[in-house]
TrEMBL record:
It comes from Olea europaea subsp. europaea. Transmembrane segments: none annotated. This is Malate dehydrogenase [NADP], chloroplastic. Belongs to the LDH/MDH superfamily. MDH type 2 family. It is found in: Plastid, Chloroplast. It comes from the Eukaryota. Its EC number is 1.1.1.82. GO terms for molecular function: L-malate dehydrogenase (NADP+) activity. The lineage of its organism: Eukaryota, Viridiplantae, Streptophyta, Embryophyta, Tracheophyta. CDD domains: MDH_chloroplast-like. Its main location: plastid. InterPro entries: Lactate/malate_DH_C (IPR022383), Lactate/malate_DH_N (IPR001236), Lactate_DH/Glyco_Ohase_4_C (IPR015955), Malate_DH_AS (IPR001252), Malate_DH_NADP-dep_pln (IPR011273), Malate_DH_type2 (IPR010945), NAD(P)-bd_dom_sf (IPR036291).
Amino acid sequence: MAVADLHTKINLQYSSRLSYVSNRLSYSRRFSLRPLPQPHNSRICCSVTSKEVQAPVTVNTEDPKKKPDCYGVFCLTYDLMAEEETKSWKKMINIAVSGAAGMISNHLLFKLASGEVFGPEQPIALKLLGSERSFQALEGVAMELEDSLFPLLREVSIGIDAYEVFQDADWALLIGAKPRGPGMERADLLDINGQIFAEQGKALNAVASRNVKVMVVGNPCNTNALICLKNAPDIPAKNFHALTRLDENRAKCQLALKAGVFYDQVSNVTIWGNHSTTQVPDFLNAKINGIPVKEVIKDTKWLEEEFTEKVQKRGGVLIKKWGRSSAASTAVSIVDAIRSLVTPTPHGDWFSSAVYTAGNPYGIAEDIVFSMPCRSKVNGDYELVKDVIFDDYLRSRIKKTEAELLAEKRCVAHLTGEGIAVCDLPGDTMLPGEM
Ligand SMILES: NC(=O)C1=CN([C@@H]2O[C@H](COP(=O)(O)OP(=O)(O)OC[C@H]3O[C@@H](n4cnc5c(N)ncnc54)[C@H](OP(=O)(O)O)[C@@H]3O)[C@@H](O)[C@H]2O)C=CC1
Ligand SMILES: O=C([O-])CC(=O)C(=O)O
């Protein structure tokens, strides 16, 4: 069905407000796409014939204080076919996105709104978090979303107060984070970004859906996710993820390239550990065409050295070429990560996500956020995969990335409620983009 058909039954309201929430000054704007009330609606004056379109006219409401601004194309007439179509739609879900004016979001938001993430019957509300510095840009993002005429995008609101923006969030995609600048110590980055994620954890705890799923992208994402979940004690720790799907995708691409196959034939790839240069792309359990990678690619030296390092440092190589970090492929990998949680995992396969280690079957230290192999339970929940094997090489690599995450955790103890921070980070620890 044509996009325009669906839009004919949608009305966009636009309002601005200034409000105080918990003593914080907050400014937010709300663009909302609401189904028009049935034909006897007194607020909107549009003809309601099946294919005929008349210029929209906004008329008085019974309550002048609630006067809606009928906005552009969304004020047009109903279409009965569209009415039929929306009967199959699910209940709207709220998706909060931080760093919404940033580069990754600029790709991601349009994928979310198009339906390619949650499916063609899932209407969504986008709640975009920015800052004073980015507010105008955020308005620009909202305007572009309007101009894209997405049928499933029913509301867009923008704000700078996490306590407002995260209200009733079903998903929180936490992308905004300060980039590491020249001369900045990694410990400083952990502290600065940790404070952002501690605050956002508190806000989620206060106002988000009790079953909100949280995907932390802003770096250092594993430890940011740990800080976030520690500050949100009323939300299950299991609901928090840090994004390592981009690393998994990068690993699949390199294995496909080496084996001379298309990348859809590569499966069972786990990224273990931290989203950093200590991450472990697991070629022991990975398969190509259902056959263990080590039986297809016999060059163990390549697997242990070249392949592993390529995946670990891919982000940095890309930054050197682009002059900025991966944005489009990161957005794609966020889509993959969410879709993997809301759709069935293909038989025998799994996907990587950095999740809370409590009760993990691999002997990895408890109480950190560590990338591991997961299978979907379809409703946004997951279970860890049990049938994976380890050898000495894999174990020793996992130990190294585990040690790094434990060191990061000690570094942010002041933000997780675990006392005084002691920062003794391993010297060679880096984000993928830092080398
Ligand atoms: N896990 C992964 O696989 C990957 C993670 N990343 C990480 O994702 C994050 C976002 O990347 P990207 O969208 O490209 O970055 P951008 O620089 O384009 O946007 C980041 C956003 O972060 C916000 N921000 C929050 N605090 C600060 C601050 N103190 N100083 C400056 N900006 C701040 C800004 O928004 P506002 O002003 O609205 O707060 C900005 O729009 C980064 O941390 C990056 O390292 C990137 C690639 C892969
Ligand atoms: O270090 C960065 O900001 C980029 C990054 O995470 C990556 O490309 O994997």
